[in-house]
Amino acid sequence: MIEAFVLVVVKPGNEEKVYEELKKDPRVKEDYRVYGEYDIILRVEVPTIEDLDKFHDEVLRKIPEIEMTETLIASTYRG
């Protein structure tokens, strides 16, 4: 299982619309509206890296109100 955190920047005034759209996706396990450089943070779980690619291509890139994303893939290291 791949766990990733996706940091999302949204065009001003569209935060609620994008938030509501993203939280419908079953791969999104947690979603937060936040203050600061990013507008939304998602915790996404997918079986493979290819499925993460599909999430980016089929979900994130199809929402025109999203200006930018940054994806952080969680390490299995639990030190």
Number of helices: 2
Q: How many strands in all?
A: 4
CATH topology: Alpha-Beta Plaits
* Helix fraction bin: 10-25%
How big is the Rg? 12 Å
Strand percentage lies at: 35-45%
The CATH homologous superfamily is termed Lrp/AsnC effector binding domain/regulation of amino acid metabolism (RAM) domain
CATH architectural type: 2-Layer Sandwich
Count of the domains: 1
Overall outline: globular
Notes on the structure:
Strands 2-3-1-4 form a four-stranded antiparallel beta sheet. The longest helix is centred in the last third of the chain and has 10 residues, at about 50-60. It is an alpha+beta fold. The chain has helices spanning about 15-20, 50-60, and strands spanning about 1-10, 30-35, 40-45, 65-75.
Any key phrases for this structure?
Alpha-Beta Plaits, four-stranded antiparallel beta sheet, 23% helix, alpha+beta, single chain, 79 residues, 38% strand, globular, 4 strands, 2 helices
Set down the secondary structure blueprint.
Blueprint: E1 2-10, H1 15-22, E2 28-33, E3 40-46, H2 49-58, E4 66-73
Antiparallel strand pairs: 1-3, 1-4, 2-3
Protein name: Transcriptional regulators
Pfam family, one: AsnC_trans_reg
Domain Transcription regulator AsnC/Lrp ligand binding: 6-74
